[in-house]
Design a protein that fits this description.
Elements: H1 5-22, E1 26-32, H2 34-37, E2 46-54, E3 62-66, E4 71-79, H3 86-90, H4 95-100, E5 103-106, H5 111-120, H6 126-148, H7 156-174, H8 186-196, H9 201-209, H10 217-233, H11 248-259, H12 268-279, H13 287-298, H14 306-330
Helix pairs in contact: 6-7, 6-14, 7-12, 7-14, 9-14, 10-11, 10-12, 10-13
Length: 338
Amino acid sequence: MRITPAMLNKIARDTVVQRTRQDHSILAIYLAGSLFSGEPLLGGTADIDLFFIHNDVVSPEREIQRLTDEVHLDIAHHGREEYTQARTLRLHPWLGHSIINCNIMHDPQHFMDFTQASVRGQFDQPENVLSRVQGQAEHARQIWLSLYDRQGEPELAQVDNYLKAVGHSANAVACLNGPPLTDRRFMVLFPSRANAVNRAGLYAGLVGLLGGSDVEVEQLRDWIILWEEAYRAVPEDVVTARLHPYRFAYYRRAFESLLGSDSPQDVLWPLLRTWLKAVKLLPADSPQVDAWGAAFNELGLYGPAFRERIIALDAYLDNVEELLDQWGQARGIERETL
């Protein structure tokens, strides 16, 4: 089936019509994510990111609906109270960017119109930009401190926290000139964001933090097979929305596309992030956990070499923090005034 942005937008509109007829608690709906940004397809697959704002709190908070193997709906359900403080939303790196850049698709009471206008006001002021990225860098530093102080062999939770810290560090740079980077295109888009602030070397540093500097394409292909086994082994009763079975092709075909690009190491971020998330949901004695451990050992993200990665993260964070200080000072903002 040929998938086009026009077709995806029609699906989004039809979904809005259908759901608002059925659910009268919906206050507003907006479209965000890769479809709205104009680059929905990777590996011939895409998701449609819709945000439903309800008058009351709704459970579950996230809903995945299959349309085809290539396309699924990813619907976030929020209560209206999450949108009442414009200043707070301006400083939120994820929700703030989603709001200012979104396409409002249902808003009979103009709730979202007002919210979007309020958040857009002063959103790009240097003080607010720096506050958003400083928050990410500080979160990364806090995680690093917890990892550095810990003794003994790493556990899955520590490896997961390490990857979170790496993600926050990279997004602290990326968000100086755009929205946060999401998993599939994380390493595809990061070089342009780093180049925009004259820090091209941060991309190579990011690859190094993931242990990918010398990884060959064939090794990556072998690991994708092991990733697939772990992904499919997650029991239905514990699976999360992020690892929903309907999202399997969304990741798998993106991996193939990235492997065929000029920078096959760009597959590392989405591969490692989702692989670890799957393994955390499996019994500790599963063969898939052993296979994951061997791969992450080879990357230095588990086992004895993990300590070296933590030390490297410290140096990387030093560079990021220096960049943010210089960025703020060039705009007349001193760290202590934030």
